[in-house]
Design goal:
about 270 residues, alpha/beta, Rossmann fold, Alpha-Beta Plaits, two-stranded antiparallel sheet, 10 helices, globular, binds flavin mononucleotide, binds iron/sulfur cluster
Length: about 270
């Protein structure tokens, strides 16, 4: 049995999980809605890189899951050009909570789903406005599919790349990594909505943490946010904005992934 567990705010990681499942005779399942946390057989963990590390819901899934029947464990991250070291954090969590090692790890560069200005500039070095042109999306999709083919080959051959790299001593967690993970868990994400809101409810539908509550216009409850940027990116009016960000700069979600697909991750 091969199962690929994913978390995805704007579809990049979900698309990778679905395409990889097709090529590896596996089944893609959403981490957020998976009731059975007793994992077994070959397992893949697919997620976006958040501030060099792991999204909180991914961390929560890893802590809660039972890995005792897992025979092969790999992970795939998607990122926007700054891959960070989520695999090291993953390794740390797996060892601490489950005494299990990661066998292989892969990272795929995709389009960044967060606008410049939200994160420190040195992290988000890509120009989002240029990134999300039709041409760039096409180019990125072709690159993504090539990367998925390569990863499928590694998974089908039960590659042990991460374990081997550890033996070579190349995987170390630095103080900057620890700092970034701390920053990721600290900021309070403030969204606002402008007058172009048409009250369609999509932001509420796609909000993976159920933080968005809509009466007339959306409101963001003072509860946990997953920082997934689904509300921001799926708004058809581009009415949702964050500090330092101009409306004209556009929005991004994976071209093959719909709002219904994102919302389907919720229970
Ligand atoms: C809160 C947040 C932090 C992010 N941090 C990074 C980062 O450190 N490095 C990077 O390259 N991309 C970063 N990104 C971009 C995403 O990793 C990238 O766009 C990913 O493919 C999105 O996956 P998804 O569509 O499955 O949600 C970040 C995105 C968000 C929302
Ligand atoms: S998705 Fe956009 S237009 Fe629709 S209710 Fe939310 S803010 Fe308004
Ligand atoms: S409020 Fe927006 S960024 Fe936060 S979890 Fe909901 S959809 Fe994601």
């Amino acid at each position: 049995m091969h199962t690929l567990y994913y978390f995805s705010g704007t579809g990049n990681s979900m698309h990778v999980a679905i395409e990889l499942a097709k090529r590896t005779n596996g089944k893609a399942k959403a981490m957020l809605s998976e009731q059975d946390k007793s994992l077994s057989g070959e397992v893949g963990l697919i997620f976006p890189v958040y501030m060099n590390g792991l999204p909180k819901p991914v961390e929560a899934f890893i802590k809660q899951a039972d890995f005792s029947k897992v025979t092969y464990l790999y992970a795939v991250s998607t990122h926007g050009g700054v891959p960070g070291k989520p695999e090291h954090y993953l390794k740390h969590l797996l060892e601490k909570h489950h005494q299990i090692a990661l066998d292989d790890y892969h990272a795929i560069e995709m389009i960044n789903n967060t606008p410049k200005g939200v994160a420190p500039k040195f992290l988000m070095h890509l120009d989002w406005e240029k990134e999300i042109t039709a041409e760039k999306r096409h180019e990125m999709l072709a690159r993504e599919l090539t990367a998925i083919d390569e990863i499928a080959d590694a998974v089908n051959h039960r590659s042990m790349g991460f374990k081997e790299a550890l033996v070579m001593g190349t995987n170390k967690i630095s103080w900057t990594d620890k700092l970034m993970w701390h920053i990721e868990s600290s900021p309070k994400l403030v969204f606002e909505v402008d007058d172009s809101c048409i009250g369609c409810g999509i932001c509420e539908e796609v909000c993976l943490s159920n933080r968005v509550k809509r009466s007339d216009r959306p409101e963001w409850a003072d509860t946990a946010c997953y920082y997934c940027y689904a509300c921001f990116n799926f708004c058809p009016q581009q009415a949702i904005y964050v500090k330092h960000y101009e409306k004209k700069m556009g929005r991004y979600h994976h071209p093959n992934m719909t709002k219904e697909a994102i919302a389907s991750q919720k229970l």
